[in-house]
Task: inverse folding
């Protein structure tokens, strides 16, 4: 039966009692009266057609296990039905109790939550319904095959893309747990943005700390750890995925200086005559074409920026260690890893996109990042605060917040960049400490310093920093000085602030590397192009690509503390997978390679990104596949099947529910996913009612219910079919859309499409679900055809 | 402003959002009172008009803002519109408020000087600048403009452009439309200082 396309609709003829020679044992639980006080167990037992029918007070007890096991062995049973409570409570228990039988050869008929607790006012109807529910389970188990859970293991090495504070923190955590890490960094040194921040703010300390002093020990540990292989000047070009296996192709550009030989004496840079803007100082100073990014950089070695080198060879002559070679080729490094962590970080909003603030036109309009470099003792002015125009200490500094953040204009970002309030307060505090005569004014929209940071905000107010609530509209030139035009919105006063320095707090946005890796790896991104986590609340580090995790500012704007927390969380997730593997329910898709013509329809249709082509073969990643069955519907060659006879089990259950239906009976078949099924259990737990006509089937994914199942049910006596799905399911929109086509198919089969109902379900919304059952039952009873 | 339990302060804002002149997705309710509009408003620089304050009053449901003198100091430069970080437009909101004032009949004095616009539409089916503005414009733009205006017919003849006045049948048609649609009645009500 059944491997047919929906269009053909050749329905099975289950009346012939398939597999009728199978020996089925039915075990009925009295559940301490919870079931037997309502349902007439004796009547049930005499109405069933099975090899063995037993009853027991508490089947889930160890004595229950003995009865089930003894009976399986002595009666040589092939299949087992447990008629007891909901599978949500005890399926795992009974899967264990039926050993030595395969756990998937058992089904539970839910006599408690879906019957005795619902229909306790009508024992006669409850007893009839119990018989139908057990028959459905008997027919279902007859269609079951023995299948084994799939255990997936992933190799214990990890690629981390991005060598900033996030990537380094994740690398260290994994390396210390014994895993091998390849740390891939695009620039010539690891360290990232944190290396150039200067001082950093902390959640508790009311003081600014030296960023490099905090970073350096971490950087050293990364360097010394034997489990970490650092690849600088390197970027990921390609990434293919197979289950717990990624193959990456990394391009490593030559450094032209042998890091093993170089002693960082700097004679090469003295000899070099090419001067270019030093990006480590935000272009506020220059460096040579042969350079070391900063003194604590790793590798502790000079490097040549070949784009600017004029190949004069002066450095080669000057080097006492003979470490420099002007020729070098890019190297392709293939990596095979079990997981990937994306720590590709952020960049800053281009302030030139807000020309009203004059950045690029007025020398003394700078960014917070540039101010950080100017205030840094290892920066272009060796820590001396000065105006770029004339080197004097500014008399006043006006900081403008939210430049590019909380901004719905073109190129702006709707989100709050989260760190800029603290960055502005930090820099203002440092200035107030060292230059008390400089007036610092922060023009803000709202000050956002949640949690302990609020204390730092109060501390800053006390140190004489002035805060004006208003978002400036313009920075203009006024002779030598600048004018910031703003409204003091608390005073309702339009003011012009004369100043000699303006500092813009620019937004954090995803770095180019973040956008690139998202595209290379086909990882989902947010509307702002940050890498999207699977669930913003409960899955904050996993991505929609199994085995790929995200941390730091690649995911959204955050400070160093939060970046480190997320990095270690990502490392823990990788470790979880490596150490225990993942046991996967076996009901997933399977490819018949003989039939598959590699058309790729399934790849683009899969919402779980489970399919890929490798070495001319279609591959389904068991870790990603949800068994939703969407791929089956687009496969023209019928080359995909779902393990575990799901189709046949659905047909069997429907058949069992309808086979003894009498003329005036009304039977409505309800398909629910596990969320909906739990909600239906809650109806019983809370002793609410729904009509006797409601018969519920639990399915792995609602998408597995095909038009052929629905039409089969309606043709064989079901008065209605109702489908409930949790809107958080990735397939929800798809299923909702599908309902219309199914209704058309019902019409073309000369039945009333109104007999199909669809609703969203939520666990706490059980009263609503009960009401929906009642309303649907009323609607069905009013239909005349 | 006090707020009673049964009052909805957003009535006024919602009426504005539903107005035919209000752009789709106007950010009025998203305003966080940052003051960027006022910071860049020439009207605010030279008068007591404060677009942020105008929006604040609207969001508080304070209908007295409709009768405020200051709202007539906006001259539609649209800087606030192009600069607002949440997609609000104080300028557009201002135009809607003015329309409310006109409909209530409290703004007749403010728009009477412009009635000649309507008169020219009715008599010539054309848009034209009211003559009361000529002396100031002559002073601001200069004598060349005035001479050009006086000799417009000659200039057009030389360039073979014909008359700029539409044919009489078109004028009659437009006139009929303006009368039947109630435009003329509205103009006259304002001229006579009645509620239009």
Result:
């Amino acid at each position: 039966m059944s491997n047919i396309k929906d269009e053909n609709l050749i329905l099975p003829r289950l009346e012939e009692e398939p597999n009728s020679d199978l020996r089925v044992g039915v075990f009925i639980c009295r559940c301490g009266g919870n079931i037997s006080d309502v349902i007439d167990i004796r009547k049930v037992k005499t109405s069933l057609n099975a090899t063995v029918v037993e009853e027991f007070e508490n089947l889930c007890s160890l004595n229950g296990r003995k009865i089930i096991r003894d009976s399986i062995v002595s009666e040589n049973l092939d299949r087992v039905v447990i008629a007891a409570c909901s599978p949500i409570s005890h399926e795992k228990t009974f899967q264990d109790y039926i050993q030595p039988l395969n756990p998937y050869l058992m089904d539970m008929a839910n006599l408690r939550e879906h019957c005795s607790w619902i229909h306790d006012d009508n024992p006669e109807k409850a007893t009839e319904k119990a018989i139908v529910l057990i028959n459905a389970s008997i027919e279902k188990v007859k269609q079951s095959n023995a299948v084994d859970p799939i255990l997936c293991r992933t190799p214990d090495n990890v690629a981390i893309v991005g060598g900033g504070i996030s990537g380094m923190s994740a690398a260290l955590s994994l390396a210390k747990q014994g895993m091998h890490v390849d740390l891939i960094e695009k620039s010539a040194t690891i360290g990232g943005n944190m290396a150039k921040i200067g001082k950093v703010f902390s959640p508790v300390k009311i003081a600014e700390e030296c960023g490099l002093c905090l970073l350096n020990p971490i950087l050293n540990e990364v360097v010394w750890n034997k489990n970490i292989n650092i690849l600088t000047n390197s970027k990921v070009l390609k990434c293919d995925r197979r289950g717990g296996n990624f193959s990456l192709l990394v391009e490593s550009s030559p450094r032209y200086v042998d890091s093993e030989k170089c002693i960082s004496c700097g004679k090469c840079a003295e000899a070099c005559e090419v001067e270019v803007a030093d990006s480590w100082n935000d272009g506020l100073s220059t460096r040579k074409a042969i350079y070391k990014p900063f003194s604590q950089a790793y590798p502790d070695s000079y490097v040549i920026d070949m784009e600017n080198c004029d190949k004069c060879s002066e450095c080669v002559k000057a080097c006492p260690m003979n470490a420099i070679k002007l020729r070098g080729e890019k190297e392709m490094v293939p990596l095979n890893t079990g997981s990937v962590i994306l720590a590709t970080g952020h960049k800053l909003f281009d302030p030139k996109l807000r020309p009203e603030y004059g950045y690029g036109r007025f020398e003394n309009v700078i960014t917070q990042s540039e101010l950080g470099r100017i205030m840094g003792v290892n920066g272009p002015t060796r820590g001396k605060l000065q105006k770029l125009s004339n080197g004097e200490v500014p008399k006043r500094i006006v900081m403008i917040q939210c430049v590019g953040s909380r901004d719905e204009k073109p190129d702006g970002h709707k989100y709050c960049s989260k760190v800029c309030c603290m960055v502005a307060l930090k820099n203002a505090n440092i200035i107030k400490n060292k230059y008390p005569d400089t007036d610092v004014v922060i023009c803000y929209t709202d000050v956002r310093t949640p949690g302990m940071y609020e204390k730092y905000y109060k501390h800053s107010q006390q140190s004489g920093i002035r805060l004006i609530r208003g978002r400036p509209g313009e920075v203009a030139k006024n002779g030598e000085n600048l004018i910031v035009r703003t409204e003091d919105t608390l005073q309702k006063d339009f003011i012009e602030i004369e100043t000699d320095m303006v500092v813009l707090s620019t937004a954090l946005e995803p770095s180019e590397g973040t956008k690139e890796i998202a595209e290379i790896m086909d990882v989902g991104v947010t509307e702002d192009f940050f890498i999207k986590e699977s669930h913003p609340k409960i899955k904050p580090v996993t991505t929609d690509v199994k085995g790929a995790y995200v941390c730091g500012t690649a995911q959204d704007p955050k400070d160093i503390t939060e970046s480190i927390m997320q990095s270690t969380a990502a490392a823990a997730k990788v470790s979880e997978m490596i150490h225990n593997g993942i046991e996967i329910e076996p009901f997933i898709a399977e490819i018949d390679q003989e039939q598959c013509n590699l058309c790729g329809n399934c790849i683009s249709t899969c919402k779980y990104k489970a399919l890929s082509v490798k070495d001319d073969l279609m591959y389904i990643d068991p870790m990603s596949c949800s068994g939703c069955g969407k791929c089956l519907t687009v496969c023209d060659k019928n080359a995909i099947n779902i393990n575990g006879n799901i189709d046949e089990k659905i047909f069997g259950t429907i058949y069992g529910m309808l086979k003894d239906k009498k003329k005036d009976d009304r039977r409505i078949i309800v398909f629910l996913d596990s969320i909906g099924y739990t909600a239906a259990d809650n109806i019983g737990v809370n002793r609410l009612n729904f009509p006797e006509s409601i018969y519920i089937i639990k399915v792995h994914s609602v998408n597995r219910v095909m038009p052929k199942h629905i039409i089969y049910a309606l043709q064989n006596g079901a008065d209605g079919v109702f489908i409930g799905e949790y809107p958080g399911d990735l397939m929800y929109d798809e299923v909702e859309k599908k309902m219309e086509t199914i209704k058309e198919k019902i019409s073309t089969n000369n039945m009333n499409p109104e007999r199909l109902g669809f609703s969203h379900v939520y666990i706490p919304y059980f009263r609503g679900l009960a009401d929906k059952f009642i309303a649907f039952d009323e609607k069905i009873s009013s239909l005349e055809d | 402003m006090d707020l009673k339990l049964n009052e909805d302060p957003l009535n006024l804002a919602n009426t504005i959002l539903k107005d035919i002149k209000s752009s789709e997705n106007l950010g009025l309710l998203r305003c966080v009172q940052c003051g960027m509009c006022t910071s860049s408003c020439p009207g605010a620089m030279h008068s007591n008009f404060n677009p942020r304050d105008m929006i604040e009053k609207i969001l508080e449901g304070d209908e007295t803002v409709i009768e405020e003198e200051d709202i007539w100091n906006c001259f539609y430069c649209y800087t606030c519109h192009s600069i607002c970080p949440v997609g609000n437009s104080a300028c557009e909101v201002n135009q809607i408020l003015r329309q409310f004032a006109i409909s209530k009949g409290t703004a007749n004095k403010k728009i009477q000087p412009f009635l000649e616009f309507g008169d020219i539409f009715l008599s010539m089916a054309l848009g034209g600048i009211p003559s009361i503005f000529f002396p100031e414009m002559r002073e601001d733009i200069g004598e060349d403009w005035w001479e050009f205006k006086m000799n417009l017919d000659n200039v057009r003849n030389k360039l073979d452009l014909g008359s700029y006045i539409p044919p009489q049948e078109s004028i009659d048609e437009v006139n009929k439309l303006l009368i039947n649609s109630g435009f003329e009645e509205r103009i006259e009500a304002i001229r006579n200082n009645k509620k239009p």
In short: Chain A has five domains: 19-142, 157-253+330-345+511-578, 266-329, 349-509, 583-642. The interface with chain B takes residues 356, 402, 406-409, 412, 445-446, 469-474, 485-489, 492, 494 of chain A (CB under 8 Å). The domain at 583-642 of chain A is CATH 3.30.70.20 (Alpha-Beta Plaits).
